[in-house]
Amino acid sequence: MITAWRIVKGEYVEGAFEGKSASFAGGRWNSRGVAVVYTSSTASLAALELLVHLERDRDLSEFVIFACTFDETTVEDIDRDKLPHGWNGYPAPDALAEIGNIWIVAATSAVLRVPSVIIDSEFNYLLNPAHREFRKIQIADPVPFSLDMRLLGIHRPKTR
After folding, report:
1. Of 125, 108, 103, whose CA–CA distance to 31 is shortest?
2. What's the pTM value of the predicted model, to 2 decimals?
3. Are 16 and 6 in contact (CB under 8 A)?
4. Yes or no: is domain 2-152 CATH 3.90.175?
């Protein structure tokens, strides 16, 4: 079994695995209007993925983290050698969203393993909430999640 991690704002717990936020905004691996759920292979990678998109004045105590598990047989891999030049650039090339959109529509798997841009030796997992095997993904209850504020460059005064 594979465990993946998802961090969301506490107010979005109920819909955390519906893919609505990615559908609303679009992402590296999906266009606007295409529902997909982004997860990461480790909790620390999920935290880094959160940080690159986080407003610096955000209260980090407002988040929760989910663990979800799924069988390797539900996973399809992206062939890194077939990714377009600059796939890991910012902003992401449109070709990546097209790859994800095609995967969603073709419904060839419930999960797509893609390389992380932040740490290219690690992976993110895209979950297709419309796939017939999505229901086999086991989603644990969320738990509160917070990060050390120093990661945002915010240093609290030392108290002694």
Report:
1. 103
2. 0.89
3. yes
4. yes
